[in-house]
Amino acid sequence: MRWENLTVESRHDRAADAALFGADAVTTRTFDTPEFRGMTFHEVRARSILNRVPGASRMPFEWTVNPYRGCTHACVYCFARKTHSYLDLDTGIGFDTQIVVKVNAPELLRRQLASPRWHGEHVAMGTNVDCYQRAEGRYRLMPGILAALRDRANPFSILTKGTLILRDLDLLKQSAEVTDVGISVSVGFTDTELWRTVEPGTPAPERRLDVVRTLGEHGIGCGVLMAPVIPFLGDEPAQLRDTVRAIAAAGATSVTPLVLHLRPGAREWFMTWLGRHHPHLVRRYERLYADGAYAPKWYQRRITRQVHDLAEEYGIGPTRAGMPRRIRPPEPVEEPVASGPTQLTLL
Questions:
Q1: What pTM, to 2 d.p., does this model score?
Q2: Distance between CA 206 and CA 208 in Å, rounded?
Q3: To which H or E segment does residue 78 belong?
Q4: Where are the beta strands (DSSP E) in 33-173?
Q5: Cα Rg for the chain, rounded, in angstroms?
Q6: Alpha carbon of 206 to those of 192, 236, 244: distances in Å?
Q7: Which one of 80-84, 145-149, 341-345 scores highest in mean pLDDT?
Q8: CB–CB of 157/304 below 8 Å?
Q9: Has residue 319 got a pLDDT over 70?
Q10: Within the chain, what is the greatest distance between any pair of CA atoms?
Q11: 178 contacts 153 by C-beta, under 8 angstroms
Q12: What is the C-alpha separation between 92 and 263, in angstroms, rounded?
């Protein structure tokens, strides 16, 4: 695998061809347990963890943190599949089962956040592959990442399909006390049969909506990215209504629809799946996506309008940008008179 081909892109003074990690830093492991059977984990020590989003990107953020490459969620439509080809790995089953784990991500992030060249910009997570995918249950990288962001009061957001985020609820609450925290859960549909075939490694949609509900009960507002809306399989008016109704019932603060897009790498894998499960739809997809990775504007506008109308009907309010929170100055603590040795604490 071409580990040396991955380069750092940064505005700072850094060699353009500096590898993210070298081949001598890779340890490959397999685990003979039911949840990881058939999977291979490539543990690497990354040289950088803060990734700058290319200027031409449509994303509304500039910096990301991705502790994993590849994803055990195995979503057949995942746009990130193409990134596995940079490592000479298969973008189909290889993307689902060959997972790169940046085992030093927490310590590296803490060091980069402390750099005088870092100015506290917003950091987005879960934008490439899910940081709360199944592998996180073993590697536990996110607690250290969240703690590093909390300790620097650095604003961040997380997008996930993983219920494992609730494990880190205390860290999220602590972070929300000192900085701007945005959480979104991805639920494109509530159709059980569709979920089983297109997102086989993810928690069921109702379990993800339980995450939205639980976060809200603990004072952390959570939006839902209704993505992807899958043409001809998940876009019937009744399906959209069922999904928005369930999202509203879970207490989501907002719902944002996003129609399926098929970038190279994902397109080939999805179309193969479509031909196997729904061969009668292949020609319709070829026509709908004839001009590129995105569905036509008229189709996207139609779905957006339908979802927004349903959101209004079910009382889901518009998204409002939160005001950045500031670190509260420590309250003076009256020191008790100790009769013996005491241990100092920072908290």
A1: 0.84
A2: 5
A3: none
A4: 40-44, 50-52, 63-65, 68-69, 98-102, 123-125, 156-160
A5: 22
A6: 9, 19, 12
A7: 145-149
A8: no
A9: no
A10: 82
A11: yes
A12: 13
